[in-house]
Structure formats: structure tokens, C-alpha cells
Write a structure and sequence with these properties.
The protein has 381 residues and is mostly helical. The protein contains 16 helices and 3 strands. The longest helix has 26 residues.
Length: 381
């Protein structure tokens, strides 16, 4: 046993996994051996879920059955919707509302206590994954003073969410773009939220607990909130009427950091950022509004010229995902919940995988407190 302290568990191997691999030196991400670019461009989010949960890409017949089973689970109990409505009316934060609603969903799942059954874990995970979009869309609709829209089982996972959010079926470009975004966020190794879900799963708790814990971890600004930060910066630049490059220069001169640049793992441009940059271009071409594309590309070019990429500080997925979501009409504070909506598939896969050969995760801390403290009775203190 080593006494070397690894703050944040950085570089510490705690498990083996077949699910995803990140090579930060060359900017590569794979799910079960498949390059993320191939999956994002050639497979639907449903196919990616099947891959993560079942170990292989589905045949056409397997995909049809899987997608139908997933769509059949989209309805959410009225009690949960009423709770979501109450949280929206009370002004609760979207991630906190999602955390509460996800925990509540377990009360309506007869299999919720079967944590020692891997197949039951996947079935529960399917219900969670299907219902999270319904919960999020209902929350946002209520906040906007509108009634929730019932899910449409004939639409894709991505298309159905956009439909429930807006009440209108999305166009092909929007649906394809959002589907890609879900695929790009589905898994990313043992990040903080995935590790949280896995730690909870290692106690043989049910997968609802693991996903709820993952949502809690993802809600922290050091993990899931960067895409929101990027979009808030872009809105600030737009409101200032400054040239975006000049705004960034002023920000850096004042010691400020530009969100969306730099990553704990990637030392080059995040491969997911390349794909979302292309989709942002497609959305801009479709709508005729190139503002966010112009801002982000100008900022990236300037910071690249300043040598940040050479120092290992390159654009990450959040640098472009915020602009993509804004172009789809999604409110800024819903970006991290959408991240959770996608990543839930990965959390579920990791919990199920780890529980197959489970060992309770129990690290230790180096004690730095006092020694040999003399106890003094209460009446003598």
C-alpha cells in the first residue's frame, strides 16, 4: 500500500472498463473501440445507448426493438409531473429539480430494489433515460407558463425532447444536431459524475441512487457548468457591442479566464468540439444567423494565435455546445441538465459494468489532525 497522496485521485487507476477511452494527448475519444467521430456522424443516440449497455452496435431489428422499448417508457407518473410543476413555480434551479424528480421516479418502479440483478439495472436505466427528457421538458414548459407536452413515441429520443420542449416537431437539421450532441456527451471515462455514480453503485445501491448522485456531481460549476459559462460570456460580448477579440483581450488583460478553453484530460482540441463546430455552422447556414459562429471562431483563432493551444489549453466541447443549444432555442440554464440527460446513459453503463465484478469503493485519507488529545468532561470545559 502506497502512502503517496494523489489529490483529486488524479492519475489513479481504480477500475477496468470496456466502455470508453480518452487519449488527451492526441484528442481521441472512443466508445467500446469506436471513434466518436464515426459514432456521432453515423449512429443515432439510441444506437450508442445500445452499444454502451449491450456491448455491440445493434442490427436494424435490434435497434427497432430497443428504440420502441425506450420510447414506451417516456410517460411519467402524474405525481412526478406535479412535483416538477411545483418546483418550477417555486423558482427551483433546473439541475436541482432534475435531481429531485429522478430520485422520485424510483417510487414508481417495481424493480427499483433489485440492485443485484444486472439485467434489472439496465431495465431501470432504460426507464430513467426515457423519462429524464420528459421531466426536463415539462419543467421548462411550466417555467414558460405553458402546459407540458406529452411525449410522442414515433419520434427519436432527440426529436421527441425538442418536440416536448417547443410543442413543434423539429426540422431535420435541428434533430440531427441535437442527436449528435447527445452522442458526444454520452460517456467520457471516469469523470467526477461517472465516478460518483460508480461509487454509489459499488455499495449495491439501486441505479436511481447512482444517477441521482451523478446529477448532483454534474451540477457543480467545475464539472457540468462550463457550457453555460461560455454562453453567458457570448451574451456579455454581444451586449457590450465590442468586437469579440477585443473583449477577450480586455478580459485576459484583467486576469480573467475564458471558459471553454482547457480540459483536465485533453491537451489538444477536444474532438467533440470539432464536430459541434461543424454542426453550429450547419445551424447558422440553415437559419441565416451566423453571430455565434462568428464570435466563437474569431475567439478560437485569436487564442490559438496567442499560443494557448501550444500550451495545452485548447477548445473543449463546451466552447461550441452552448452556441449549438442556443441556436436550438434552449435556455442557458438548461444546458447542464441536457448534459445530464445524455450522460445518464453512460452512468448507467458504468454502474452495471462495475457491479458485474463488484468491490466496494473505499479509499482512505491521510490523517493530519491532532494526536493524543486529552478528553475533558463537559462540566470541566
Amino acid at each position: 500500500m502506497t502512502d503517496e497522496l494523489k489529490r483529486g485521485l488524479e492519475g489513479v487507476l481504480v477500475a477496468e472498463s470496456d466502455l470508453s477511452y480518452v487519449d488527451g494527448e492526441v484528442g481521441k475519444l472512443v466508445y467500446r473501440g469506436y471513434d466518436i467521430e464515426d459514432l456521432a456522424r453515423g449512429a443515432s443516440y439510441e444506437e450508442v445507448l445500445y452499444l454502451l449497455w449491450h456491448g455491440s452496435l445493434p442490427t436494424a431489428a435490434e435497434l427497432d426493438a430497443f428504440a420502441a422499448d425506450l420510447a414506451a417508457e417516456r410517460e411519467v407518473d402524474d405525481d412526478v409531473i406535479e412535483t416538477v410543476r411545483a418546483l418550477a413555480d417555486a423558482g427551483e434551479r433546473p439541475m436541482a429539480a432534475l435531481r429531485t424528480a429522478t430520485s422520485m421516479l424510483s417510487a414508481y418502479d417495481d424493480e427499483a430494489d433489485e440492485a443485484d440483478d444486472g439485467e434489472a439495472t439496465i431495465r431501470q436505466g432504460r426507464r430513467i433515460t426515457a423519462k429524464i427528457p420528459t421531466v426536463l421538458a415539462a419543467f421548462e414548459r411550466v417555467r414558460q407558463g405553458a402546459e407540458p407536452v406529452a411525449p410522442d413515441p414515433d419520434l427519436s429520443h432527440a426529436g421527441n425532447f425538442l418536440y416536448m420542449l417547443t410543442g413543434t416537431e423539429p426540422d431535420a437539421v435541428s434533430e440531427e444536431t441535437f442527436d449528435m450532441a447527445l452522442t458526444l456527451h454520452a460517456d467520457h471515462g471516469l469523470n467526477a459524475s461517472t465516478f460518483t455514480a460508480m461509487v454509489i453503485g459499488s455499495t449495491m445501491a439501486d441505479v436511481y441512487s447512482g444517477v441521482t448522485g451523478g446529477i448532483g456531481a454534474l451540477s457543480g460549476p467545475l464539472h457540468g457548468g462550463a457550457n453555460q459559462d461560455v454562453m453567458e460570456v457570448l451574451h456579455e460580448i454581444d451586449a457590450s457591442s465590442k468586437d469579440p477579440v477585443q473583449w477577450v483581450k480586455d478580459k485576459r488583460d484583467g486576469g480573467g479566464r475564458i471558459p471553454g478553453f482547457g480540459h483536465r484530460v485533453y491537451k489538444v482540441k477536444d474532438p467533440r468540439a470539432n464536430i459541434l463546430e461543424e454542426k453550429l455552422r450547419d445551424l447558422a447556414d440553415s437559419s441565416g444567423d451566423t453571430k455565434w459562429l462568428d464570435y466563437t471562431t474569431a475567439i478560437e483563432e485569436y487564442l490559438t494565435d496567442q499560443g494557448l493551444v501550444e500550451k495545452g489549453i485548447a477548445p473543449n466541447v463546451d466552447f461550441y455546445s452552448g452556441s449549438v443549444y442556443d441556436s436550438l432555442g434552449i435556455p442557458v440554464d438548461m444546458y447542464t441538465p441536457i448534459f445530464a440527460m445524455s450522460r445518464a446513459g453512460g452512468w448507467i453503463a458504468h454502474v452495471a459494468e462495475y457491479q458485474e465484478d463488484n468491490r466496494l469503493i473505499r479509499p482512505r485519507a491521510r490523517y493530519t489532525g491532532p494526536e493524543d488529545a486529552e478528553f475533558v468532561p463537559l462540566d470541566e470545559r
